[in-house]
């Protein structure tokens, strides 16, 4: 997986336009194509691309030829903490943990502000925790917990000012990039469904038509969103990002519900690639916070 990703990068496959730079749709379309091809690969590619965008937004250059990730989860009370100049803590869902070169780790400082640190993962004070990533879906993304133990932080490791990570316009633009990957994963499942149909009955055709419509509708929303972001790159696109992510999540669950009704159990039991696609999509799309995020949209609309 990592070898494949490094090959894509070496060939220029992840030299993507920066979000808000005038060609955001090309960026999101490239991420969607990767998701349509292989979701764990796309997860790692999106993390690397997001890291480069964050560094660019902070006026920083990445370490040459380094493969990056972004580790910012604060799930279940876990997370990194910066106390003085020392970084400690456990970060969950660290995709690519055992194979990446560097990671942008978001930590909370003494004042509760989010601070982004560019960390060299070769440092032995940064270690993945065996047994903390044991899923079926997205297993190849290699996303275990990572423990940081008394890592001394130098000035050149700090990316942006305190609060930069959450305050920057690119935070919401990057969130839509993740939605593009989800949508690509949904389209990939539909590709397999269509390829396996030889003489569809009316009910199967109806499901395919519904899924095609859902995917194209969400795709159209992303096109609109890219135009809005390019038109006002420093604007507040929080509601737009939440809406795009909710639409992509709904489309993914429509695919997960309808695809097995079209195919029946055979490919789920005899075609490991198809079964893996379903499992990958189900796990990855749960980065969306379901009703919690929908409630946030509702509050914005009502306000």
TrEMBL record:
Organism domain of life: Bacteria
GO molecular function: oxidoreductase activity, acting on the CH-CH group of donors
Extent of the signal sequence: none
InterPro entries named in the record: Acyl-CoA_Oxase/DH_mid-dom_sf, AcylCo_DH-like_C, AcylCoA_DH/oxidase_NM_dom_sf
Protein name per the record: Acyl-CoA dehydrogenase
């Amino acid at each position: 997986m990592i070898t494949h990703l490094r090959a894509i990068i070496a060939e220029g496959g992840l030299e993507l336009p920066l979000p808000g730079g005038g060609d955001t749709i090309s960026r999101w379309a490239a991420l969607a194509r990767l998701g349509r091809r292989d979701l764990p690969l796309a997860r790692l590619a999106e993390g690397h691309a997001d890291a480069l965008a964050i560094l660019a937004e902070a006026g920083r250059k990445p370490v040459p030829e380094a493969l990056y990730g972004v580790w910012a989860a604060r799930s279940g009370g876990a997370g990194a903490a910066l106390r003085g100049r020392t970084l400690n803590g456990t970060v969950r869902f660290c995709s690519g943990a055992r194979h990446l070169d560097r990671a942008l780790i978001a930590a909370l400082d003494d004042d509760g502000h989010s601070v982004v640190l560019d960390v060299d993962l070769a440092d032995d004070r940064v270690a993945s925790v065996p047994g903390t990533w044991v899923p079926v879906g997205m297993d190849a993304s290699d996303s275990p917990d990572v423990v940081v133990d008394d890592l001394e932080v130098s000035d050149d490791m700090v990316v942006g000012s305190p609060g930069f990570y959450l305050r920057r316009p690119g935070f919401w633009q990057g969130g839509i990039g993740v939605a593009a990957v989800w949508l690509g994963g949904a389209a990939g499942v539909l590709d397999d469904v269509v390829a396996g149909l030889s003489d569809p009955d009316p009910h199967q055709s109806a499901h395919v038509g519904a899924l095609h419509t859902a995917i194209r509708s969400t795709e159209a929303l992303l096109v609109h969103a890219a135009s809005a972001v390019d038109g006002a790159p420093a604007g507040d696109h929080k509601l737009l990002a939440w809406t795009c992510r909710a639409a992509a999540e709904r489309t993914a669950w429509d695919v997960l519900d309808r695809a097995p009704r079209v195919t029946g159990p055979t490919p789920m039991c005899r075609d490991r690639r198809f079964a893996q696609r379903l499992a990958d999509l189900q796990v990855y799309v749960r980065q969306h916070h379901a009703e919690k995020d929908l409630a946030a949209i509702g509050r914005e609309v009502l306000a």
